[in-house]
Amino acid sequence: MSRLFETRPGDDGLPGPQRRIAVWVLILGTLMAVLDANMVNIALPTLARDLDVEPSRAVWIVNLYQLVGAVSLIAFAALSELVTRRLLYIGGLVVFTLASLGCALARELEPLLIWRALQGLGAAAMLSIGPSLYRSIFPSRLLGSALGISAMVVALGYASGPSLGGMLLTVADWPWLFALNVPVGCVVLLLAWRTLPRETHRSRGFDVWGALLSAITLGALVMAMDGLGHAASARQTVGLFALGGACGWAFVQRQRRAEYPLLPLSIFAEPRFSLAALVSNLAFIAQGLAFVCLSFLYQSQMSYSPLETAWLFTPWPLAIMLIGPLAGRLADRYNATLLASLGLALLLVGLALLAMLRSDAAVVDILWRTALCGLGFGLYQSPNNRELLSSVPRALSANASGVMSTVRTFGQSLGVALVGVVLAWPAANVQAALWLGCAAVALALLASVWRIPMTSAPVRDEPFERPSPGSR
Hints:
The chain crosses the membrane at residues 21-40, 60-80, 87-107, 113-130, 142-161, 176-196, 208-228, 234-252, 273-298, 310-327, 334-355, 401-426, 432-450. This protein has 472 residues and is mainly α.
């Protein structure tokens, strides 16, 4: 770990001591944002009872946080060009901390939903540029190791969220789920102001229409996919998909003509970047699908309790936490796409073995297969993220970071929705949905293997040729 904070002659990024504190700023900010996305899940029955609302309405306490975050990731990544990543991260942290206080003080559903939406905005501002800030903080030679830390932190948030929420609810009331963010947020805010790298403004304008079209596109598609997974009316689902598609087409046309595009389309001209984004999307589809499928498998077919099911999930994120930093360090020395392909192959084998589980399988059989999936996902994630970020010029790293967060969010949402679609078929079962996850990983593996010969330069810093405003 100490090598991450050594300063060598010619290093870019921050000096070692400042780098150490800045990394803790990103770790704690990411943990708060990820924990709040899934720690509240376990408190929904308590929230519904205390707020005297139907469970179907209480679900929006979680859904609104995720939806607001999903639709604003790309816009925040572009906004960082106007206000700088440092100020955007600090601003997002301020909003998130104040909104957490508002959530803790709310005693009715409507005010709580407003504060949760603001929390989602603050979290999106931090998460949209988090990976990009790692690239600014660490020297290029340590980018893979830095992204390994990022993968470990996200996995820790997903792994500990339900357990931490459950333990907190046994000793305190639900407002403390939000109130704990306030002192932590204040400390992180002070550290962020002192240590995050200062930079100059890179853009003189912001594409407001592009941001609006992007938000409508992403919001409509997320709600449509949610409708697929919850048996919404066909008319409503088709309408949302049509709205998302139409606004998506308009967004692309807008980006081709805008003087300061929200998302420069030239970024996708780099095959390494486009393939890394595609691989990430497919892998997160599989993970989102698997997490829902396994919950049904363990509880409905294998008769485990919800608490036992949570423990059976633990090897997956735990393996990511253990292998993620190592995979990042290896990606700094060896071909990142080769490592990512190996990880995807292990993930494919692990998912296939889980799909073949019998209902009377022993606990140890479940645990080692789940751990194999986590091992594969952890080995894939850090090298793939390094490939995605390093394949674009540093000036576009904020845009790349926004794309990375968006494809991850959409992958998870689509995976959950696909479970509902598959289980709606009369002859389908949980195993069929898991095999669909295997198909997504197989496609990701094919795309990853295809790009192996492309990985020659570790980090790209020369600019893309940007089209002139109004050109196609």
